[in-house]
Amino acid sequence: MRLVTWNVNSIRTRLDRVLAFLDRSQADVLAIQETKCRDDQFPAAAFEAAGYEVAHFGLSQWNGVAIVSRVGLTDVATQFPGQPGFAKTIIEDGPDPLLDVVPPVEARAIGATCGGVRVWSLYVPHGRGLGDPHYTYKLAWLEALRTSAQDWARAGDAVALMGDWNVIPLDTDVYDAADFAGKTHVSPPERAAFDAFGEAGYTELTRAFLPEEHTYTYWDYQQLAFPRNKGLRIDFCWASPALAGRAAGAAIDRDERKGKGASDHVPVIVDLAG
DNA sequence: ATGGTAGCTGTGCTA
After folding, report:
1. How do strand A247-252 and strand A218-219 relate by DSSP bridges?
2. C or N terminus of chain A, fewer CB within 10 Å?
3. A41 touches strand B (CB under 7 A)
């Protein structure tokens, strides 16, 4: 079974490329991030015509996550237990005592069971800056996800946590670590929050099969980052113990970054035995 | 040199 994760940076703009990729790669399950649309705007019919079932969660033009599968798609969840929400004014000023406001959960996680695997499509908050409320939110979001992931692992579930993690785990996962000093994605708390999935018993499958340094999954649109190969490795698949033993390979479809109309991220592929 | 590019809607936000 072939699982893929891909931040497409707008599903409506990228639909032809995504459908061509599904045909070319013969992906069984595709976890999509940054659909940038509401549920009523998601082009579900096009995927269904290609033989895939669809689950999408989008609330606005921001974020948006989906899972499409041709090996079954059941038990859809649009947030994980304990997933924190975000609202800038609430985090900066605290909940409004008169309104008793709770920050709304964003469209950054969707889970579904596909071919016996519990697949999550995850779009981890960016963080924006080390002193930004969004950075605090990012760390809380990752910690809550790890707590849930640990519960799933202890239950013996076969879980794939796939997505755009917005963390650069190693200095060799970025074109120039010095360029990122003092920025998000490389700070020790972010790296610790990412590594905590390993401590919870999970295995990052792309690292296991693609250990070569300076292997990237994202290149900024600006300043000719792709021709200059100034990329980042930020898209990953953490597998629970029950799933990791079935892993048979991984690949990064770097060529998908080429040409006009590419997403700034490329598909990240994991193959399972059976 | 505080720029640059892309995608959503916008008189800007987010990445």
Report:
1. unpaired
2. C
3. yes
